[in-house]
Amino acid sequence: MIKAEYRHSELTSEVIGCAFEVHKILGNGFQEVIYQRALAIELEECGIGFAREFDMPIFFKGRHIGSRRVDFLIEDVVSVELKAIVALNDDHLAQGINYLEAYNLEVGMLINFGSSSLQFKRLMNKKFKTEK
């Protein structure tokens, strides 16, 4: 478990570094999709594996009821949701946590490019279940 925690910490730190580079160059004021495209380029240049707009199924009592797209799935283990708004609020945090629980991912991130300083939150799934 410690190894997985270390890997998550390492990955989230690398993603935060990429996000800072994007924000340093672009600043705030663009639409979310612009930051998404720029972050994809930065992640690629840093050799970080990712899937962009990754479609993930949502289940209720074992039945497929729809799907949602996470902005990035990093190395198949960390979800990243981007925002380009003035400030993050509890609704955005809840969305990030819901994605972690729905996809059974242990760690996620919420990154906001919309403020004058980059904002980010690491999210933990308290309901995470390790597969046996």
TrEMBL record:
<dbReference type="InterPro" id="IPR026350">
    <property type="entry name" value="GxxExxY"/>
</dbReference>
<protein>
    <submittedName>
        <fullName>GxxExxY protein</fullName>
    </submittedName>
</protein>
<dbReference type="Pfam" id="PF13366">
    <property type="entry name" value="PDDEXK_3"/>
</dbReference>
